[in-house]
Amino acid sequence: MPKQTIIRVDALKKSYNGRPAVAGISLAIAAGTCFGLLGPNGAGKTTAVEIMENIQKPDQGRILFKGKERDRSFNQQVGVQFQQTELMAFLTVEETLRTFAAFYAQSLPVEAVMDLCMLKEIKHQRCNKISGGQRQRLLLSLALINDPDLLFLDEPSTGLDPQARQHVWDIIKGIRSRGKTTILTTHYMEEAWVLCDDIAIMDEGKIIAQGAPKDLVKTHCASMPPESRNLESVFLALTGKRLKG
Amino acid sequence: MSLKRMWALFVARSLEFIRDRAGFGWNILFPFLLVAAFGIAFGPDAKKQFKMGLFPVPDPVPALETIRIPDALKTDPAIQLVFFKDLDPALEKLRHHKIDILVQSGEVKDPEAVPSKNDSKVRYWVSDASPRGALAEKLVKAALVPEAFFEKRVYKQAVPGTLVRYIDWLFPGILGMNIMFSAFFGVGYVIVRYRRNGVLKRLKATPVTAFEYLSAQLISRVVVSMAASMVVWAGCDVIFSFQMQGSYVDAAIVFLFGTVCLVSFGLILACRGTNEELTNGIINFICWPMMFLSEVWFSIEGTAGWIRQAAGFLPLTHFLAAARKVINDGATLSQVSQEMAILAVMSLVFLAVGSWLFSWTR
Q1: Looking at CB atoms within 10 Å, which of A89, B35, B310, B362 has the fewest?
Q2: A95: nearest CA in chain B?
Protein backbone atom coordinates (compact mmCIF):
# COMPACT_ATOMS: atom_id res chain seq x y z
CA MET A 1 0.00 0.00 0.00
CA PRO A 2 1.51 3.39 -0.98
CA LYS A 3 2.41 5.63 1.91
CA GLN A 4 0.46 8.85 2.44
CA THR A 5 2.08 12.10 1.43
CA ILE A 6 2.82 14.19 4.50
CA ILE A 7 4.02 17.27 2.67
CA ARG A 8 3.57 18.28 -0.95
CA VAL A 9 5.38 21.14 -2.63
CA ASP A 10 4.14 22.45 -5.97
CA ALA A 11 6.09 24.75 -8.29
CA LEU A 12 7.88 26.59 -5.51
CA LYS A 13 9.77 29.73 -6.50
CA LYS A 14 11.80 32.20 -4.47
CA SER A 15 14.19 34.93 -5.62
CA TYR A 16 16.49 37.31 -3.79
CA ASN A 17 17.10 40.61 -5.56
CA GLY A 18 16.02 39.07 -8.84
CA ARG A 19 18.32 36.08 -8.47
CA PRO A 20 16.36 32.84 -8.25
CA ALA A 21 17.24 30.75 -5.19
CA VAL A 22 14.47 28.22 -5.74
CA ALA A 23 13.33 27.97 -9.35
CA GLY A 24 10.10 25.99 -9.39
CA ILE A 25 10.58 22.80 -7.41
CA SER A 26 7.88 20.22 -6.78
CA LEU A 27 8.09 17.40 -4.25
CA ALA A 28 5.87 14.88 -2.56
CA ILE A 29 7.32 13.36 0.61
CA ALA A 30 5.82 10.18 1.97
CA ALA A 31 4.94 9.92 5.65
CA GLY A 32 7.29 7.79 7.73
CA THR A 33 10.26 8.21 5.44
CA CYS A 34 13.55 10.04 5.65
CA PHE A 35 13.90 12.39 2.71
CA GLY A 36 17.29 13.86 1.83
CA LEU A 37 17.85 17.10 0.02
CA LEU A 38 21.37 17.27 -1.40
CA GLY A 39 23.15 19.86 -3.42
CA PRO A 40 26.25 22.01 -3.58
CA ASN A 41 26.52 25.24 -1.57
CA GLY A 42 24.10 27.84 -2.90
CA ALA A 43 21.90 25.26 -4.63
CA GLY A 44 18.82 26.54 -2.77
CA LYS A 45 18.40 23.68 -0.30
CA THR A 46 18.15 25.83 2.81
CA THR A 47 15.77 28.30 1.15
CA ALA A 48 13.55 25.45 -0.04
CA VAL A 49 13.51 23.85 3.40
CA GLU A 50 12.87 27.16 5.18
CA ILE A 51 9.88 27.77 2.93
CA MET A 52 8.59 24.30 3.81
CA GLU A 53 9.19 25.11 7.50
CA ASN A 54 7.11 28.29 7.09
CA ILE A 55 10.07 30.45 8.04
CA GLN A 56 10.17 32.13 4.64
CA LYS A 57 7.35 32.99 2.28
CA PRO A 58 7.60 31.73 -1.31
CA ASP A 59 7.19 34.09 -4.25
CA GLN A 60 5.10 31.44 -5.98
CA GLY A 61 3.96 27.91 -5.37
CA ARG A 62 1.88 25.98 -2.90
CA ILE A 63 2.64 23.73 0.06
CA LEU A 64 0.20 21.24 1.47
CA PHE A 65 0.77 19.58 4.83
CA LYS A 66 -1.27 16.41 5.36
CA GLY A 67 -3.29 17.41 2.32
CA LYS A 68 -4.22 20.90 3.57
CA GLU A 69 -2.81 24.40 3.52
CA ARG A 70 -0.62 24.96 6.53
CA ASP A 71 -2.38 26.70 9.41
CA ARG A 72 -1.44 27.70 12.96
CA SER A 73 -1.38 24.05 14.03
CA PHE A 74 1.50 23.39 11.61
CA ASN A 75 4.16 24.56 14.08
CA GLN A 76 2.71 22.24 16.74
CA GLN A 77 3.34 19.25 14.49
CA VAL A 78 6.81 19.95 13.16
CA GLY A 79 10.26 20.04 14.67
CA VAL A 80 13.06 22.14 13.24
CA GLN A 81 16.81 22.13 13.58
CA PHE A 82 18.48 24.99 11.76
CA GLN A 83 21.99 24.98 10.48
CA GLN A 84 23.17 27.83 12.71
CA THR A 85 21.23 28.86 15.76
CA GLU A 86 22.34 30.49 18.97
CA LEU A 87 20.36 29.80 22.08
CA MET A 88 19.58 31.87 25.14
CA ALA A 89 23.07 32.03 26.53
CA PHE A 90 22.35 32.16 30.26
CA LEU A 91 19.82 29.34 30.40
CA THR A 92 20.95 25.82 31.20
CA VAL A 93 20.43 22.92 28.83
CA GLU A 94 17.54 21.63 30.93
CA GLU A 95 15.92 25.08 31.27
CA THR A 96 16.15 25.57 27.52
CA LEU A 97 14.41 22.26 26.93
CA ARG A 98 11.72 23.03 29.51
CA THR A 99 11.16 26.46 27.96
CA PHE A 100 10.68 24.94 24.52
CA ALA A 101 8.52 22.13 25.91
CA ALA A 102 6.15 24.79 27.27
CA PHE A 103 5.64 26.20 23.77
CA TYR A 104 3.74 23.12 22.63
CA ALA A 105 0.33 21.77 23.50
CA GLN A 106 1.94 18.36 23.93
CA SER A 107 5.55 17.50 24.50
CA LEU A 108 7.70 14.55 25.36
CA PRO A 109 9.08 14.33 28.92
CA VAL A 110 12.18 16.51 29.11
CA GLU A 111 14.12 13.77 30.92
CA ALA A 112 13.37 11.29 28.11
CA VAL A 113 14.56 13.70 25.42
CA MET A 114 17.71 14.46 27.40
CA ASP A 115 18.30 10.72 27.66
CA LEU A 116 17.74 10.22 23.95
CA CYS A 117 20.16 13.00 22.97
CA MET A 118 22.68 12.21 25.73
CA LEU A 119 22.31 15.57 27.42
CA LYS A 120 21.83 14.44 31.02
CA GLU A 121 25.43 14.96 31.98
CA ILE A 122 25.37 18.56 30.83
CA LYS A 123 21.82 19.44 31.81
CA HIS A 124 22.97 22.03 34.37
CA GLN A 125 25.45 23.68 32.01
CA ARG A 126 24.56 26.98 30.45
CA CYS A 127 24.10 27.11 26.71
CA ASN A 128 27.06 29.46 26.29
CA LYS A 129 29.35 26.96 28.00
CA ILE A 130 28.67 23.82 25.96
CA SER A 131 30.75 22.53 23.06
CA GLY A 132 29.74 22.63 19.40
CA GLY A 133 28.80 18.95 19.40
CA GLN A 134 26.79 19.30 22.58
CA ARG A 135 24.98 22.27 21.06
CA GLN A 136 24.10 20.25 17.97
CA ARG A 137 22.63 17.56 20.22
CA LEU A 138 20.72 20.19 22.17
CA LEU A 139 19.35 21.70 18.94
CA LEU A 140 18.27 18.24 17.85
CA SER A 141 16.58 17.65 21.21
CA LEU A 142 14.67 20.94 20.82
CA ALA A 143 13.45 19.76 17.43
CA LEU A 144 12.25 16.52 19.02
CA ILE A 145 10.67 17.93 22.19
CA ASN A 146 7.14 18.10 20.73
CA ASP A 147 7.36 14.58 19.25
CA PRO A 148 6.82 16.03 15.77
CA ASP A 149 5.19 14.23 12.88
CA LEU A 150 7.58 15.98 10.52
CA LEU A 151 11.15 16.78 11.44
CA PHE A 152 13.34 19.22 9.48
CA LEU A 153 17.06 18.76 10.00
CA ASP A 154 19.39 21.17 8.24
CA GLU A 155 22.83 19.58 8.24
CA PRO A 156 22.35 17.95 11.65
CA SER A 157 25.76 16.32 11.91
CA THR A 158 27.95 19.16 10.69
CA GLY A 159 30.80 19.71 13.09
CA LEU A 160 30.29 16.46 14.97
CA ASP A 161 32.97 13.88 15.60
CA PRO A 162 32.36 10.37 14.17
CA GLN A 163 30.92 9.00 17.42
CA ALA A 164 28.53 11.90 17.83
CA ARG A 165 27.53 11.66 14.16
CA GLN A 166 26.81 7.96 14.56
CA HIS A 167 24.69 8.82 17.59
CA VAL A 168 22.68 11.41 15.63
CA TRP A 169 22.15 8.85 12.87
CA ASP A 170 20.84 6.36 15.44
CA ILE A 171 18.38 8.97 16.70
CA ILE A 172 17.14 9.70 13.16
CA LYS A 173 16.76 5.99 12.46
CA GLY A 174 14.78 5.69 15.70
CA ILE A 175 12.49 8.53 14.59
CA ARG A 176 11.83 6.81 11.28
CA SER A 177 11.14 3.50 12.97
CA ARG A 178 8.38 5.25 14.95
CA GLY A 179 6.66 6.27 11.72
CA LYS A 180 7.77 9.90 11.81
CA THR A 181 8.99 11.76 8.76
CA THR A 182 12.34 13.49 8.45
CA ILE A 183 13.49 15.99 5.85
CA LEU A 184 17.22 16.22 5.93
CA THR A 185 19.70 18.44 4.15
CA THR A 186 23.27 17.31 4.22
CA HIS A 187 26.63 17.57 2.51
CA TYR A 188 27.63 14.11 3.70
CA MET A 189 26.85 11.52 1.01
CA GLU A 190 27.41 8.70 3.48
CA GLU A 191 24.80 10.24 5.77
CA ALA A 192 22.27 10.41 2.95
CA TRP A 193 23.09 6.86 1.90
CA VAL A 194 22.66 5.47 5.43
CA LEU A 195 19.57 7.43 6.44
CA CYS A 196 17.49 8.42 3.44
CA ASP A 197 14.74 6.44 1.74
CA ASP A 198 14.44 9.04 -0.96
CA ILE A 199 16.77 11.75 -2.19
CA ALA A 200 16.45 14.88 -4.29
CA ILE A 201 19.55 16.53 -5.67
CA MET A 202 19.26 20.28 -6.18
CA ASP A 203 21.42 22.58 -8.27
CA GLU A 204 20.81 26.21 -9.18
CA GLY A 205 17.42 26.17 -7.51
CA LYS A 206 16.09 23.13 -9.35
CA ILE A 207 15.75 19.46 -8.59
CA ILE A 208 17.95 17.70 -11.08
CA ALA A 209 17.44 14.14 -9.85
CA GLN A 210 15.21 12.33 -7.41
CA GLY A 211 14.82 8.73 -6.26
CA ALA A 212 15.97 6.11 -3.80
CA PRO A 213 19.74 6.25 -3.24
CA LYS A 214 20.29 2.79 -4.77
CA ASP A 215 18.19 3.68 -7.83
CA LEU A 216 20.12 6.91 -8.34
CA VAL A 217 23.41 5.02 -8.24
CA LYS A 218 22.08 2.41 -10.62
CA THR A 219 20.84 5.03 -13.06
CA HIS A 220 23.76 7.45 -13.03
CA CYS A 221 26.75 5.22 -12.32
CA ALA A 222 26.07 2.30 -14.69
CA SER A 223 29.09 3.12 -16.84
CA MET A 224 31.45 3.70 -13.89
CA PRO A 225 33.85 1.15 -12.41
CA PRO A 226 32.29 -0.74 -9.46
CA GLU A 227 34.42 1.07 -6.84
CA SER A 228 33.01 4.43 -8.05
CA ARG A 229 29.40 3.43 -7.95
CA ASN A 230 28.25 5.48 -4.98
CA LEU A 231 26.18 8.51 -4.12
CA GLU A 232 29.16 10.86 -4.27
CA SER A 233 29.76 9.90 -7.89
CA VAL A 234 26.10 10.53 -8.65
CA PHE A 235 26.35 13.91 -6.99
CA LEU A 236 29.51 14.91 -8.88
CA ALA A 237 28.19 13.56 -12.15
CA LEU A 238 25.05 15.63 -11.84
CA THR A 239 26.36 18.84 -10.32
CA GLY A 240 29.84 18.88 -11.87
CA LYS A 241 33.25 19.04 -10.21
CA ARG A 242 33.55 22.80 -10.40
CA LEU A 243 33.65 24.49 -6.98
CA LYS A 244 30.35 26.18 -6.21
CA GLY A 245 28.89 28.46 -3.60
CA MET B 1 -2.74 33.51 23.03
CA SER B 2 -1.15 31.01 25.43
CA LEU B 3 -0.33 32.11 28.97
CA LYS B 4 1.85 28.99 29.33
CA ARG B 5 4.08 30.11 26.47
CA MET B 6 4.18 33.69 27.73
CA TRP B 7 5.12 32.53 31.22
CA ALA B 8 7.91 30.30 29.83
CA LEU B 9 9.29 33.20 27.80
CA PHE B 10 8.96 35.58 30.75
CA VAL B 11 10.87 33.24 33.05
CA ALA B 12 13.53 32.56 30.41
CA ARG B 13 14.15 36.25 29.69
CA SER B 14 14.14 37.22 33.36
CA LEU B 15 16.62 34.46 34.20
CA GLU B 16 18.79 35.59 31.33
CA PHE B 17 18.83 39.15 32.61
CA ILE B 18 19.45 38.28 36.25
CA ARG B 19 22.23 35.81 35.38
CA ASP B 20 23.99 38.27 33.12
CA ARG B 21 25.87 39.63 36.10
CA ALA B 22 27.64 42.38 34.22
CA GLY B 23 24.44 43.77 32.74
CA PHE B 24 22.37 43.30 35.87
CA GLY B 25 25.06 44.75 38.13
CA TRP B 26 25.44 47.77 35.91
CA ASN B 27 21.69 48.39 35.98
CA ILE B 28 21.86 48.63 39.77
CA LEU B 29 25.27 50.23 40.10
CA PHE B 30 24.89 52.92 37.44
CA PRO B 31 22.16 54.97 39.14
CA PHE B 32 23.89 54.52 42.53
CA LEU B 33 27.09 55.95 41.10
CA LEU B 34 25.25 58.82 39.43
CA VAL B 35 23.34 59.74 42.55
CA ALA B 36 26.50 59.46 44.66
CA ALA B 37 28.40 61.66 42.21
CA PHE B 38 25.67 64.27 42.25
CA GLY B 39 25.38 63.99 46.00
CA ILE B 40 29.01 64.97 46.24
CA ALA B 41 28.79 67.58 43.52
CA PHE B 42 25.72 69.17 45.05
CA GLY B 43 26.58 68.56 48.67
CA PRO B 44 27.70 71.21 51.20
CA ASP B 45 29.79 73.00 48.55
CA ALA B 46 26.97 73.01 46.03
CA LYS B 47 26.48 76.76 46.27
CA LYS B 48 30.03 77.44 45.09
CA GLN B 49 29.07 78.11 41.52
CA PHE B 50 31.96 80.36 40.47
CA LYS B 51 35.70 79.79 40.54
CA MET B 52 37.67 82.94 41.24
CA GLY B 53 41.40 82.90 40.67
CA LEU B 54 43.54 85.02 43.01
CA PHE B 55 47.14 86.05 42.41
CA PRO B 56 49.77 86.60 43.55
CA VAL B 57 49.32 84.28 46.51
CA PRO B 58 52.40 82.55 47.91
CA ASP B 59 52.60 78.82 48.38
CA PRO B 60 51.74 77.67 51.06
CA VAL B 61 48.62 79.81 51.02
CA PRO B 62 48.56 82.20 53.98
CA ALA B 63 45.52 82.84 56.17
CA LEU B 64 42.62 84.24 54.14
CA GLU B 65 42.43 87.38 56.29
CA THR B 66 45.90 88.41 55.14
CA ILE B 67 44.99 88.31 51.44
CA ARG B 68 43.96 91.73 50.28
CA ILE B 69 40.70 91.49 48.37
CA PRO B 70 37.26 92.83 49.29
CA ASP B 71 35.98 90.89 52.33
CA ALA B 72 32.69 90.09 50.62
CA LEU B 73 34.55 87.98 48.04
CA LYS B 74 36.17 85.92 50.81
CA THR B 75 32.85 85.01 52.37
CA ASP B 76 30.55 84.85 49.34
CA PRO B 77 29.07 81.30 49.34
CA ALA B 78 28.84 81.34 45.56
CA ILE B 79 32.59 81.77 45.12
CA GLN B 80 35.32 79.19 45.31
CA LEU B 81 38.77 80.77 45.57
CA VAL B 82 41.63 79.29 43.56
CA PHE B 83 45.13 80.57 44.36
CA PHE B 84 47.98 81.27 41.93
CA LYS B 85 51.52 82.42 42.55
CA ASP B 86 51.94 84.01 39.15
CA LEU B 87 49.82 85.73 36.53
CA ASP B 88 50.66 83.64 33.44
CA PRO B 89 49.43 80.22 34.63
CA ALA B 90 46.33 81.90 36.03
CA LEU B 91 45.58 83.56 32.68
CA GLU B 92 46.05 80.21 30.98
CA LYS B 93 43.38 78.68 33.23
CA LEU B 94 41.09 81.64 32.57
CA ARG B 95 41.51 81.29 28.81
CA HIS B 96 40.43 77.66 29.05
CA HIS B 97 37.43 78.39 31.30
CA LYS B 98 38.93 76.49 34.23
CA ILE B 99 38.33 79.57 36.34
CA ASP B 100 35.60 82.14 35.71
CA ILE B 101 37.45 85.29 36.72
CA LEU B 102 40.94 86.25 37.88
CA VAL B 103 41.46 88.90 40.56
CA GLN B 104 44.71 90.45 41.61
CA SER B 105 45.26 90.43 45.31
CA GLY B 106 46.23 93.78 46.85
CA GLU B 107 45.39 97.32 45.86
CA VAL B 108 46.54 98.46 42.48
CA LYS B 109 47.38 101.99 41.51
CA ASP B 110 45.58 103.05 38.37
CA PRO B 111 48.37 104.34 36.11
CA GLU B 112 45.93 106.55 34.24
CA ALA B 113 44.25 108.05 37.25
CA VAL B 114 45.09 111.41 38.65
CA PRO B 115 46.80 110.68 41.98
CA SER B 116 44.45 111.09 44.90
CA LYS B 117 43.55 109.39 48.18
CA ASN B 118 41.08 106.94 46.55
CA ASP B 119 42.99 105.88 43.46
CA SER B 120 43.32 102.18 44.44
CA LYS B 121 41.26 99.75 42.40
CA VAL B 122 40.49 95.98 42.19
CA ARG B 123 42.10 94.67 39.05
CA TYR B 124 40.50 91.61 37.40
CA TRP B 125 40.60 89.66 34.16
CA VAL B 126 37.55 88.05 32.65
CA SER B 127 37.01 86.27 29.35
CA ASP B 128 34.41 87.90 27.11
CA ALA B 129 33.73 84.40 25.74
CA SER B 130 32.55 83.16 29.14
CA PRO B 131 28.92 83.70 30.23
CA ARG B 132 29.89 82.56 33.72
CA GLY B 133 32.69 85.11 33.71
CA ALA B 134 30.17 87.90 33.10
CA LEU B 135 28.22 86.81 36.18
CA ALA B 136 31.37 86.46 38.24
CA GLU B 137 32.30 90.01 37.19
CA LYS B 138 29.02 91.26 38.66
CA LEU B 139 29.85 89.48 41.92
CA VAL B 140 33.21 91.23 42.07
CA LYS B 141 31.58 94.60 41.46
CA ALA B 142 28.82 93.90 44.01
CA ALA B 143 31.48 93.03 46.57
CA LEU B 144 32.69 96.61 46.42
CA VAL B 145 29.27 97.95 47.39
CA PRO B 146 28.58 98.08 51.12
CA GLU B 147 25.78 95.75 52.31
CA ALA B 148 24.03 98.76 53.79
CA PHE B 149 23.44 100.03 50.25
CA PHE B 150 21.14 97.07 49.55
CA GLU B 151 19.38 97.03 52.89
CA LYS B 152 17.34 100.08 51.99
CA ARG B 153 16.69 99.00 48.40
CA VAL B 154 15.80 95.32 48.39
CA TYR B 155 13.45 93.14 50.43
CA LYS B 156 14.13 89.40 50.47
CA GLN B 157 11.11 87.10 50.72
CA ALA B 158 11.21 83.46 51.82
CA VAL B 159 9.88 80.86 49.39
CA PRO B 160 6.69 79.39 50.84
CA GLY B 161 6.34 75.63 51.29
CA THR B 162 8.98 72.94 51.59
CA LEU B 163 12.21 73.56 49.76
CA VAL B 164 13.10 70.91 47.19
CA ARG B 165 16.80 70.05 47.27
CA TYR B 166 18.44 69.60 43.89
CA ILE B 167 19.20 65.96 44.69
CA ASP B 168 15.50 65.36 45.42
CA TRP B 169 14.56 66.97 42.11
CA LEU B 170 17.28 65.08 40.26
CA PHE B 171 16.67 61.60 41.68
CA PRO B 172 13.45 60.77 39.75
CA GLY B 173 15.28 61.90 36.60
CA ILE B 174 18.16 59.52 37.22
CA LEU B 175 15.80 56.63 37.92
CA GLY B 176 13.80 57.46 34.78
CA MET B 177 16.97 57.69 32.73
CA ASN B 178 18.14 54.32 34.04
CA ILE B 179 14.80 52.76 33.15
CA MET B 180 15.04 54.31 29.68
CA PHE B 181 18.52 52.86 29.09
CA SER B 182 17.42 49.52 30.49
CA ALA B 183 14.33 49.49 28.25
CA PHE B 184 16.13 50.51 25.08
CA PHE B 185 19.25 48.42 25.46
CA GLY B 186 17.69 45.54 27.43
CA VAL B 187 14.80 45.13 25.02
CA GLY B 188 15.65 46.91 21.78
CA TYR B 189 19.28 45.92 21.54
CA VAL B 190 18.82 42.39 22.90
CA ILE B 191 15.99 41.52 20.51
CA VAL B 192 18.06 42.74 17.56
CA ARG B 193 20.92 40.54 18.79
CA TYR B 194 18.55 37.57 19.10
CA ARG B 195 17.37 38.23 15.55
CA ARG B 196 20.92 38.39 14.23
CA ASN B 197 22.10 35.19 15.92
CA GLY B 198 19.03 33.16 14.98
CA VAL B 199 17.26 32.83 18.34
CA LEU B 200 14.15 34.57 16.96
CA LYS B 201 14.21 32.44 13.83
CA ARG B 202 14.23 29.34 16.02
CA LEU B 203 11.29 30.70 18.02
CA LYS B 204 9.42 31.41 14.81
CA ALA B 205 9.52 27.69 14.08
CA THR B 206 7.57 27.05 17.30
CA PRO B 207 3.94 27.91 18.05
CA VAL B 208 5.06 31.11 19.85
CA THR B 209 3.36 34.17 18.35
CA ALA B 210 4.89 37.63 18.01
CA PHE B 211 2.36 38.98 20.49
CA GLU B 212 3.27 36.34 23.08
CA TYR B 213 6.96 36.92 22.59
CA LEU B 214 6.78 40.72 22.76
CA SER B 215 4.41 40.68 25.73
CA ALA B 216 6.73 38.37 27.65
CA GLN B 217 9.69 40.62 26.86
CA LEU B 218 7.74 43.66 27.98
CA ILE B 219 6.53 42.14 31.24
CA SER B 220 9.92 40.71 32.09
CA ARG B 221 11.69 44.02 31.54
CA VAL B 222 9.04 45.98 33.43
CA VAL B 223 9.24 43.65 36.44
CA VAL B 224 13.04 43.63 36.45
CA SER B 225 13.31 47.41 35.97
CA MET B 226 10.77 48.13 38.69
CA ALA B 227 12.57 45.79 41.10
CA ALA B 228 15.95 47.32 40.24
CA SER B 229 14.54 50.83 40.71
CA MET B 230 13.19 49.91 44.13
CA VAL B 231 16.58 48.56 45.18
CA VAL B 232 18.30 51.71 43.92
CA TRP B 233 15.74 53.94 45.60
CA ALA B 234 16.08 52.16 48.95
CA GLY B 235 19.88 52.23 48.76
CA CYS B 236 20.06 55.89 47.78
CA ASP B 237 17.47 56.82 50.40
CA VAL B 238 19.71 55.41 53.12
CA ILE B 239 22.53 57.71 51.97
CA PHE B 240 20.64 60.86 50.96
CA SER B 241 17.39 60.69 52.96
CA PHE B 242 15.20 61.76 50.09
CA GLN B 243 12.25 63.97 50.83
CA MET B 244 9.14 62.12 49.70
CA GLN B 245 6.17 64.46 49.67
CA GLY B 246 3.66 62.10 48.05
CA SER B 247 2.59 58.51 48.48
CA TYR B 248 4.99 55.67 47.74
CA VAL B 249 2.14 53.70 46.17
CA ASP B 250 1.32 56.60 43.83
CA ALA B 251 5.00 56.92 42.94
CA ALA B 252 5.17 53.18 42.22
CA ILE B 253 2.15 53.43 39.92
CA VAL B 254 3.68 56.38 38.08
CA PHE B 255 6.93 54.44 37.67
CA LEU B 256 4.97 51.43 36.42
CA PHE B 257 3.24 53.50 33.73
CA GLY B 258 6.51 55.18 32.77
CA THR B 259 8.40 51.89 32.61
CA VAL B 260 5.72 50.22 30.48
CA CYS B 261 5.80 53.20 28.11
CA LEU B 262 9.59 53.22 27.77
CA VAL B 263 9.80 49.44 27.30
CA SER B 264 7.07 49.68 24.65
CA PHE B 265 9.16 52.31 22.93
CA GLY B 266 12.09 49.88 23.15
CA LEU B 267 9.99 47.29 21.33
CA ILE B 268 9.62 49.66 18.39
CA LEU B 269 13.40 49.95 18.23
CA ALA B 270 13.56 46.15 18.25
CA CYS B 271 10.90 45.45 15.66
CA ARG B 272 13.28 45.22 12.71
CA GLY B 273 16.94 44.91 11.91
CA THR B 274 19.85 42.61 12.49
CA ASN B 275 22.62 45.16 12.78
CA GLU B 276 23.59 45.71 16.40
CA GLU B 277 25.88 48.65 15.62
CA LEU B 278 23.09 50.46 13.80
CA THR B 279 20.67 49.75 16.62
CA ASN B 280 23.20 51.02 19.12
CA GLY B 281 23.52 54.24 17.12
CA ILE B 282 19.76 54.68 16.83
CA ILE B 283 19.27 54.09 20.54
CA ASN B 284 21.91 56.67 21.42
CA PHE B 285 20.43 59.07 18.86
CA ILE B 286 17.10 58.83 20.69
CA CYS B 287 18.36 58.56 24.27
CA TRP B 288 20.57 61.62 24.42
CA PRO B 289 18.13 64.26 23.16
CA MET B 290 15.39 62.64 25.26
CA MET B 291 17.61 62.87 28.34
CA PHE B 292 18.05 66.61 27.91
CA LEU B 293 14.62 67.54 26.55
CA SER B 294 12.83 65.51 29.21
CA GLU B 295 14.61 67.39 32.00
CA VAL B 296 16.60 64.54 33.50
CA TRP B 297 19.41 66.88 34.52
CA PHE B 298 18.04 70.40 34.32
CA SER B 299 14.88 72.27 33.54
CA ILE B 300 14.17 73.46 30.00
CA GLU B 301 11.94 76.23 31.39
CA GLY B 302 12.52 79.39 29.39
CA THR B 303 13.87 77.64 26.28
CA ALA B 304 12.33 78.23 22.85
CA GLY B 305 8.71 77.16 22.48
CA TRP B 306 9.46 74.57 19.84
CA ILE B 307 11.92 72.85 22.17
CA ARG B 308 9.24 72.53 24.85
CA GLN B 309 6.76 71.35 22.23
CA ALA B 310 9.22 68.71 21.01
CA ALA B 311 9.73 67.58 24.60
CA GLY B 312 5.98 67.00 24.85
CA PHE B 313 6.23 64.19 22.31
CA LEU B 314 8.72 62.26 24.44
CA PRO B 315 7.49 59.66 26.93
CA LEU B 316 10.22 60.43 29.45
CA THR B 317 8.98 64.03 29.70
CA HIS B 318 5.56 62.96 30.98
CA PHE B 319 7.02 60.18 33.11
CA LEU B 320 9.38 62.55 34.93
CA ALA B 321 6.80 65.32 35.20
CA ALA B 322 4.41 62.94 36.95
CA ALA B 323 7.13 61.38 39.11
CA ARG B 324 8.42 64.77 40.27
CA LYS B 325 4.94 66.04 41.01
CA VAL B 326 4.32 63.03 43.25
CA ILE B 327 7.77 62.84 44.84
CA ASN B 328 8.65 66.54 45.14
CA ASP B 329 5.24 68.19 45.40
CA GLY B 330 3.12 65.51 47.03
CA ALA B 331 0.66 65.28 44.12
CA THR B 332 -1.92 62.52 44.09
CA LEU B 333 -2.63 60.24 41.13
CA SER B 334 -5.62 62.33 40.13
CA GLN B 335 -3.37 65.37 39.98
CA VAL B 336 -1.05 63.61 37.52
CA SER B 337 -3.87 61.96 35.58
CA GLN B 338 -3.02 63.94 32.44
CA GLU B 339 0.56 62.66 32.37
CA MET B 340 -0.63 59.14 33.19
CA ALA B 341 -3.18 59.23 30.38
CA ILE B 342 -0.54 60.40 27.90
CA LEU B 343 1.79 57.60 29.03
CA ALA B 344 -0.99 55.04 28.65
CA VAL B 345 -1.90 56.23 25.16
CA MET B 346 1.76 56.33 24.12
CA SER B 347 2.26 52.78 25.46
CA LEU B 348 -0.66 51.48 23.42
CA VAL B 349 0.56 53.23 20.27
CA PHE B 350 4.12 51.98 20.73
CA LEU B 351 2.95 48.42 21.39
CA ALA B 352 0.65 48.44 18.39
CA VAL B 353 3.32 49.83 16.07
CA GLY B 354 6.01 47.53 17.50
CA SER B 355 3.85 44.42 17.08
CA TRP B 356 2.76 45.46 13.61
CA LEU B 357 6.29 46.06 12.37
CA PHE B 358 7.86 43.13 14.20
CA SER B 359 9.77 40.61 12.14
CA TRP B 360 11.36 37.42 13.47
CA THR B 361 14.05 37.31 10.83
CA ARG B 362 14.48 40.64 9.02
Answers
A1: B362
A2: B12
